[in-house]
Write a structure and sequence with these properties.
12 helices; AKR_Detox_Biosynth; TIM Barrel; 14% strand; globular; 10 strands
């Protein structure tokens, strides 16, 4: 396993990060296997674990907390807050980036994780309703209280990354030291602004969905039907499988990418992970296995060094800064989704 410094924090992280969105009801309900996955990841040298309060509505954090019992200090533990969580009827403040919610959410995450501190606490998405100073003020207090060691953003557009840095400097707040963003061979939007902006400010970058929701795992191929339990069928709208044109384009690209992987002497999975890790701003790529076999297929990718020729061939297939499906960006400003926000 290779290791890199997480931006300018001085924190050493493995080039692969274990993402745990699939722990619990959203993926694998066998807690013993989830523990086995986490154990094997740590044995392989992975030292950073990423979860979020919203994953299976807290269940992922609970499973991670139990699995880490007795060895909490061995890992860099990251979680996130922003999404609305279940609560009592009439409780309208169970989500977002307000001080009210952040202070409640962090206590809930600490309890579920069975720890008294979080190494990296991330704001899962922007919240245009809230002044970024309000958010940074709450996060700064958590750092000063010792409940959080470092703070980061996730899926923030470049302009909001800049605004957060400016606000922290001018208002004397703790600053975001990481950005977690969507990036893969098939979704390269981050190369245009978010990645170079993160690098400019010295942010550590954690990449989510480097396999583009499973498209770069090799399990979806031209001329074959996906497995019955695959997310392509169970959640086809989200994973592009019901959009015929996007599906056709991605399946064709997969075949051509497999040829590049064969020439590099690696699997498609390792090609995909090696690609995102080749970017100079990236610190670690998040892998999110649902099963133990999926984990083993991804281990070792952190050591892959792709040739310049392979990277050039990938550029020829999917142009830098472009997405095969523009909806893979991960965050759309509400002004683009709600007509009322564009009208007088």
């Amino acid at each position: 396993m290779q290791y890199r410094t997480l931006g300018r924090t001085g924190i050493e992280v493995s080039t692969l990060c274990l993402g745990t969105m699939m722990f619990g009801a959203w993926g694998n309900t066998d807690e013993a296997e989830c523990h086995r996955i986490l154990d094997a990841a740590l044995d392989a040298g992975i030292n950073v674990i990423d979860t979020a309060d919203i994953y299976a509505f807290g269940e992922s954090e609970e499973i991670v907390g139990r699995a880490l019992k007795g060895r909490r200090d061995q890992v860099v533990l990251a979680t996130k807050a922003n999404n609305a969580m279940p609560g009592e009827p009439g409780d309208r403040n169970r989500g977002g980036n307000s001080r009210v919610w952040i202070m409640r959410a962090v206590e809930d995450s600490l309890r579920r994780l069975g720890t008294d501190y979080i190494d990296l606490y991330q704001i899962h998405r922007p919240d245009p309703r809230v002044d970024i100073d309000e958010t940074l003020g709450a996060l700064s207090d958590l750092v000063h209280q010792g409940k959080v060691r470092a703070i980061g953003s996730s899926t923030f557009p470049a302009e909001q990354i800049v605004e957060a840095q400016w606000t922290a400097e001018r208002r004397g707040r703790e600053r975001f030291v990481t950005e977690q963003l969507s990036y893969s061979i098939l979704a390269r939007h981050a190369e245009g602004a978010a990645l170079p902006t993160s690098e400019r400010y010295g942010l550590g970058v954690l990449v989510w969905s480097p396999l583009n929701g499973g498209w770069l795992s090799g399990k979806y191929r031209l001329g074959s039907e996906p497995a019955a339990d695959s997310r392509a069928l169970t959640n086809g709208d989200h994973f592009d499988f019901r959009d015929a044109e996007v599906r056709r384009r991605k399946l064709e690209l997969v075949e051509r990418l497999i040829a590049i992987a064969d020439d590099e002497g690696c699997s498609l999975i390792h090609l995909a992970l090696g690609f995102v890790l080749a970017h100079r701003a990236v610190s670690t790529a998040i892998i999110g296995p649902r099963t133990f076999d999926q984990l083993t297929s991804q281990l070792g990718a952190g050591d892959v060094m792709l040739s310049t020729e392979a990277l050039d061939r990938i550029d020829a297939l999917v142009a830098p800064g472009t997405d095969v499906n523009p909806e893979n960006v991960g965050y759309q400003p509400p002004e683009l989704l709600d007509a009322a926000l564009r009208r007088r």
